[in-house]
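# step 3/5: fold
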Amino acid sequence: MAKRLMVTAPRQVEFKEIPVPDCPGDGLLVRARVTAVSTGTEIRVYRGIAVDKEGVFLHTSVPFQFPCENGYSMVGEVVEVGSEAAGFSVGDRVFVAASHGQYAAVPAHTAIHLPDTISDEVAVFLSILEVGHIGLRTGKPEPGENVAIMGGGVIGLSALAYCRAFGFRTALIELDRGRLDLAGKMGADLLTSPADEGFSDSVIEFFDGEGPDLVLEAASVWPAIETGMQIARKGGRVVVIARHTDMPAFSPVGHPYLGKGLALLTSYGHRPDGHRWDRRRSNALTLELLLKKKLLVSPMITARFDWQELPDVYRRMDEGDKGLVGVVIRWS
């Protein structure tokens, strides 16, 4: 038998005893070493909030129903290889997009071999990092352009890590001072809060009096989109990375935004297989950047817990504990 975290009702979670999954013929059975918490997605599920106003979908194409699993980031050890699976051996250390639990059975083509020099607690953020990576690529910044990131949670800080790796001058905008400190350790060029006096003017002035070319919104609230549209330069781009379940109190096509000629974009998921930056190529670049120590991740890892503590981690996040940013859950 194995433990798996289940959300059984809004704000109710427990560990269920389930049979160890069977290894698929074309897949792998993986025993967890660590999992990571994707704060925005997992707390939305923990709260029982659907992605659509009708309450039909838990995720983009996943029906909303309890009980349900939660999470999508695991580093583990291969304990069984299916008869039709190639390229893996028992004992391999891999990343898999799997929920919080002791075991996961996955198709082999979705598992990612991990280099020995990348630690478990860094590698487990691979999918979370990729959310920031995809968001940045969606905005198509050119060399020499400037980027502002709204929100200093795990996705905003992930985007910051890529901005620094690719050499973009970057501002991190966040209300919480502790998260601004983390952004400073990760190399943000400007740290500022919307609560600061003269905030908008100071950001625009920092970016040569014109504002950022690209704004990445990773705060999950419409006021952050509005602020991003206010500070973006004329003809700039605003990319919404975060999932939104609130409604706007302003018109994105009203004054003064229409006159700025802004592009408002959304970002979700990897490009289709075969694209220059599909899942395989994008993940490979991230691993290369980590190997070359060009992608700074460790400052955003703020807490480590044993698996039994995960329900309390959810409770603390739900109650607004901003000190929990990058959270690693230990299973062995």
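# step 4/5: annotate
The chain has a mean pLDDT of 96.
# step 5/5: archive (pending)
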